[in-house]
Amino acid sequence: MRATAIAQPNIALIKYWGKRDVEQNLPAVGSISVTLAELQTTMLVDLESSVAKDTLVVNGEENPQLLPRISACLDNVLGSERAAVLVDSSSNFPIAAGLASSASAFAAVTVAATAAAELELPRQQLARMAGRASGSAARSLFGGFVELQNDASNIDVRSLCDARDWPLQVVVAITETAPKPTGSTEAMEISRKTSPFYDSWIDKQGVDLATAREAISARDFGALAMVSEHNCLKMHSVMWASRPPMVYWNSATMRCMQMVRALQADGCGVFFTIDAGPQVKAVCLPEDTAAVTSALESTEGVKQLMVTGLGDGARRVEQR
Ligand code: 2P0
After folding, report:
1. How far apart are CA 49 and CA 138, in angstroms?
2. Which of 43, 173, 183, 318 has its CA 20 to 30 A from that of 219?
3. How much is the pLDDT for 96?
4. What is the pLDDT of residue 178?
5. Would you call 272 exposed, middle or buried from its count of C-beta atoms within 10 A (0-12, 13-18, 19+)?
6. How far apart, in Å, are the Cα atoms of 256 and each of 36, 153, 253, 282?
7. pLDDT of 24-82, one tens digit each?
């Protein structure tokens, strides 16, 4: 009746932005991501604690903000006729700051809750359950390069390539650790309702997905770099043109992008991607990791760097 799971966040190269069904939390587009290795969320779910109501502890402190979404996820996984649950979570990276903390949190709680209830479910079903709580969480059930397909009335998630088969590195430049001003869920709906570029974003996503899929299959870093940066900047253009505009970048975000451009001009195998937050993720070839790390380390406004390889999907671990 107690189980612990570990999940890692994932970084989308071809982004999820927009929902076709808010109630069911179904994405409007497919997406492709990489699951990270070193950034981790560890979550204990205890179904027989003596808590009177659902309780969420994050890094040692009660967290009432995230609790309603965790409770809704537990209802979805365990049914609403359940006893109060204690969830104890810890992450080794800043949460709610554009580092996909909701992806690892909802992937971990889904795996831990099903394990605690001794439910044996296929990974695909776990991914759909996690995705109902947070779209990007569905991708953290799988490792390496992961595609979330958005077909018919359901989502389908699969690994395109194992982490060990194309061991790229990701250097995360943290430029701000405070929570972002507008959460993704709300921001996506603002974009859908107000951005003049939204329909075109949805229409063109299939082309970017196909290009990225081919690049991953051919291990073609240059092609993956080009389509990933294009897709990232296109998503941010949708956000910038929304009303109110959503500009998640700060001046250090721009400086990091310029630094990546300078590294590319020097022949480095690196590209950037940025999510709904000011952090810059530089994806690079293993042999260029040291050069990328040193360049971003010395970029003005970078507060912290995290360097990671690609990792595995969410899984149960020994009780802590
Ligand atoms: C992504 N993001 O593909 C995109 C890129 C942010 C920018 O998925 O509303 O927290 O919980 O389904 O999963 C962030 O969205 O949104 C996200 P919900 P989620 O990674």
Report:
1. 28
2. 173
3. 57
4. 81
5. buried
6. 20, 39, 5, 9
7. 999 999 999 999 999 999 999 999 998 999 999 999 999 998 899 999 999 999 998 99
Answer whether 101 contacts ligand 1 (Cβ < 6 A): no
pLDDT of 100 higher than 80: no
d(CA 308, CA 283): 10
Residue 293, Cβ neighbours under 10 Å: how many?
A: 17
pLDDT digits (tens, 9 = 90+) for 167-213: 999 999 999 988 778 888 999 999 999 999 999 999 999 999 999 99
Q: In sequence order, which residues have a C-beta less than 8 Å from that of residue 61 and are 6 or more positions away? A: none
Atom 15, ligand 1: which residue's CA is nearest?
A: 184
Ligand 1 atom nearest 11 alpha carbon: 20
Q: Crossing angle for the helix pair 67-78 and 101-116, nearest 10 degrees?
A: 40
Looking at ligand 1, which atom is closest to the CA of residue 27? 12
C-alpha 16 to ligand 1 mean position (Å): 6
Question: To test ligand 1's pocket by mutation, which of 275, 279, 281 has the most ligand atoms within 8 angstroms of CB?
Answer: 275
Which residue has its alpha carbon closest to ligand 1 atom 20? 12
